[in-house]
Amino acid sequence: MMDWTDRHCRFFHRQLTQRALLYTEMVVADAIIHGQRERLLGFDAAEHPVALQLGGSDPLKVAEAARIGEDFGYDEINLNVGCPSDRVQSGTFGACLMKTPMLVADCVAAMKAAVKIPVTVKCRIGVDDQDPESALDTLADGVFAAGADALWVHARKAWLQGLSPKENRDIPPLDYQRVYRLKARLPERFIGINGGIPSVEDAVGHLDHVDGAMLGRAAYHTPGILASVDASLSREEPAAFDFAALIETMADYTARHIEQGGRLGHVTRHMVGLFHGLPGARRWRQILSTDATRPGAGPDVLKAAFASIDFNTEAAA
After folding, report:
1. Which residue among 83, 96, 107, 123 is the active-site one?
2. Is 96 a catalytic residue?
């Protein structure tokens, strides 16, 4: 999720779940090799386990970027073969690589040779006029033969011509059954599912058919749902979550970020949807969208916003 799941977002999400694997936004291999690595790759140790998601199509470059990512301490390297954005297509990576599955396999093989940590791939079921049955099977067989440790499948096609990236998240129909069939054909391989999963409950339901389920926009827009992930994975009833402790942790984190030259809004922009459905949520959103974005805003703004939340009233706001 480019421009969304930055280090501040991941630190915040990690406070809500200790068990979920977190993914970075996609980072282009060329940028890692030639750019400001600490800015692009730096992360807090609290984020573990965390995977670095790469964009690229040159086996030598993605291998070098993977090696750099491993040196930074990431737990997994993921190659993105699913993003349909115009920026990605112009760079000949992302979803358009579904059309060149052997090149994807070559990239995986090069990455596996460069690092000791897991190398995984995230893809679509196909692009444009491809037949999802043959397209997904061909890609899966190629990357697993090259040594991939897992394949995450966004269960809808990407239309590279005629649909915007936003439309590609909604218009092509979801086909979860296609991903289930892939897992049934490859029972010994790790197959994860992605795309339109609205809740933790739905994600757990997919685990009856595949090995993992990925939450994207639902986790970002309503991050409070992540507080039930750990218990759900254990098939237990979730205990009451200590949101007061979460706010204290995030206030301390934002204070450190501000001391290093950052702004409160860099962190709190990821927290706007935390209390979705609770009384006071509207006021929380207003404060984080206005006061928290003003120059000089500090952690006290975050605490003031939290004071507006009423956990004792059931009526939604």
Report:
1. 83
2. no
